[in-house]
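## Example pair
The file below holds two records. Each record gives the amino-acid sequence first, followed by its C-alpha cell line.
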Amino acid sequence: MFARLLSAPLLIAVIAIAMGSGIDALVKGVAPGAGLHHLLAWRFLFGGILAFAVFRAKRRPAPSGEAIRFHTMRGLLQLFCAFTFFYALTQLRLAEATALGFTAALLVAPVARVMIGEKISLITVGATLLGFGGVALAVWEPGGLGVTPGETNRTLGLVALFSSTVGYAFVLVLLRMRATKEDATTIAMFTNVVPAIAMLPVTVGLFGFPALASIPLFLVLGVLGYSVWFLMTLAYARAPAQQLAPLEYTALIWSAIFGLAFFDEWPGWTLWVGAAIIIASCLIVAFQGRFRTRRETGLPASDLPE
C-alpha cells in the first residue's frame, strides 16, 4: 500500500513541487551570505556532475555538433534566467516571486509567435492581458511589503524577476523546438553542465573559492535541483499532462508556508487575488491551446498524445 502511494504520479508531482519551493527558500536564505555568484556556479557544478553521470549510465548517444551549439545557447540563457530569478528571490518575498514567476507561461505564446510563427488566438490574447492585470494587482499592496528600506531593493527585484520570466519563455520555446530530437536526460545534462562550464571559471577567477562551510549547501542545491527534474519527469511519464499541470500552481502555497515559517513574510490580499487571476489566465491559455488542437484533429482531448 505504502509503495503504491509513493509511486502515484500526483503525489510524486506534489513532492517535486514542494522540493522546488524549498530550493527557492534555501536560495533566499543562503545567497546573501554565500554570494549569488558562488551559489550559481557550484549549484550547477554539482547538478552537472549528477546529470552527466545519469547521462552516461543510460548510455545516451553522443550529441551532434548542432545539438551542442543549440544547447550551449539555451544553457547560457538558462543561466541568465537562474541568475535573475535567484536575485529576485533575495529582494522579494517568496510567495510574491513565485506568483509573478507564473507569468512565464503567459509569455510563451507571443514568444512562439515571434520565433516559430505559431498563431495566437483571441482567447489567448485576452487571457494574457487578464493575466498581466493580475500582475498589476499582485505587485500593488496598500499596506506595503513589510521590507525595511535599505535591506532590499524591490524595484530591482521586480525588474530581475520579469527579465527572468521573459528569458524562461524563450527557454520553453527552445525546448519545444528540440524536444523531438533529444530525450529528457540529454536536455537535463546540458541544462546543468553548460551553466557550470560558463560560470565556474569566472567565479573562481574573480572571487576565489567559497567558504568550505557553504560547499555542503551548494551540493544540496545541486542534488535537489536535479531531483526535482527527475521526479517531475517520472510523474509526467505516468499521468496525462492535463492532470499534473495545474498542480504546479500549488508552489504558491508552499512558498507562502516557507516564507512565513522562515522569513516571517505575510502576503497581502492583493497578492492572493492577483495570483488567482494569473493562474486562471495560465490555465485558460493552456487548455484553450489543447482544445484548439482537438478541433483541428477531430479527436477528443483525452485521445491527444501528451
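Second record, same layout:
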Amino acid sequence: MPIVVHLDLMLARRKMRSRDLAAAVGISEVNISLLKSGKVKGVRFDTLERICEVLQCQPGDLLVHEPEAPVKSSTP
C-alpha cells in the first residue's frame, strides 16, 4: 500500500507507549496496534486529530505516501 503509517516512530520520539496513546485518544489498544501496522483501510479525521493533539504533531508526520514501483513488463 502506498500510504505508510509512521505512528510507531512518533510514539518512540515522544517516549509514549501505545497503551497511553490509546487511553488519551479514547480508542482501543487493538486499534492503535492496527494503525501502527498499517492494517487499516482508513482512519476517521476526528481520530487522526486527537492522535495529533496528543502527540503534538501534524498528520504528515504520521502518514507518508510512498508510491509502489511500476511493474515492468517482460515483453519488448
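Notes on the second record: The longest helix spans residues 45-55. Helices lie at 7-13, 18-25, 29-37, 45-55, 59-62.
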